[in-house]
Specification:
Radius of gyration: 17 Å
Low-confidence stretches: none
Mean pLDDT: 93
CATH architecture: 3-Layer(aba) Sandwich
Structural class: alpha/beta
Number of helices: 6
Largest sheet: 7 strands, mixed
Distance between the termini: 18 Å
CATH topology: Rossmann fold
Number of domains: 1
Oligomer: single chain
Strand content: 15-25%
Length: 231
């Protein structure tokens, strides 16, 4: 009997999961796999020094609802939320980040994990990536067989390769048939929407998909780096 894959997407902030691999999620769900998502941070706090706690909590609740709506559109089975402080993951003991990933991993027991490229400009992305690699070390009994990195517009390309390795994907997923779901999920994040030419605008996200599609002869594609794969 064919067994479904269980996939865990670990993202630093709400909407990173859609930007990085929303098409892959929609396609894998359509093909029968189960997809879960862990959102590490609450978001909406890094530049809100003038807002009071009530205002920040209200915005965070809106963002959480948007995340759940996006998950529903993509077909994600369950979303797990952590509340690490936005743009301040470096103020948190690294072990706490690792344990948060391990906690969800132990519940889901995923076969495959997708997370941030370690060379992103955003420090939260970097630390999330490291935490995932640490939490999924290939020891005896580890369920995770494959780990992939995804790119996030306005972070991956903005590192400009300073002291990092560039994002050089080696896995390409044709999302031409499900790209509309990725776009709808992105639109669901109304509080995070940006206008073109911002890298996270809907127009640019489509440009990126078409670019990677042109690289491999497809209409729209999401690109990933395969970090580890155990057959």
């Amino acid at each position: 009997m064919f067994m479904k894959n269980k996939i865990l997407v670990v993202a630093a902030h709400p909407d990173d999961e859609v930007l990085g691999c929303g098409g892959m999620i929609a396609r894998m769900v359509a093909e029968g796999d189960l997809v879960f998502c862990l959102l590490m941070g609450c978001g909406k706090t890094s530049r809100d020094d003038k807002k009071n706690k009530t205002e920040i909590e209200k915005e965070q609740n809106i963002l959480k609802k948007e995340a759940l709506e996006a998950a529903k559109i993509l077909g994600i089975s369950e979303v797990f939320f952590e509340d690490f402080p936005d743009q301040k993951y470096d103020t948190v003991p690294f072990l706490d980040l690792v344990k948060s990933v391990e906690k969800v991993k132990d519940v889901v027991r995923p076969d495959i994990v997708y997370t941030h490229f370690g060379g992103d400009l955003n420090l939260d992305h970097q630390l999330t990536s490291r935490a995932v690699l640490t939490a999924t070390r290939p020891v005896l009994g580890e369920s995770v067989k494959s780990v992939y990195f995804f790119e996030v517009p306005s972070s991956t390309e903005w590192s400009f390769n300073q002291n990092y390795n560039s994002f050089s994907p080696n896995v390409f997923v044709d999302v031409s048939g499900v790209f509309d779901k990725k776009n709808k999920a992105l639109v669901a994040y109304k509080s995070e929407s940006r206008k073109y030419p911002h890298p996270r605008s809907s127009e640019n996200v489509e440009v990126i998909a078409k670019h990677w599609g042109a690289v491999v002869g497809k209409e729209k594609v999401e690109a990933f780096i395969l970090v580890r794969n155990l057959q």
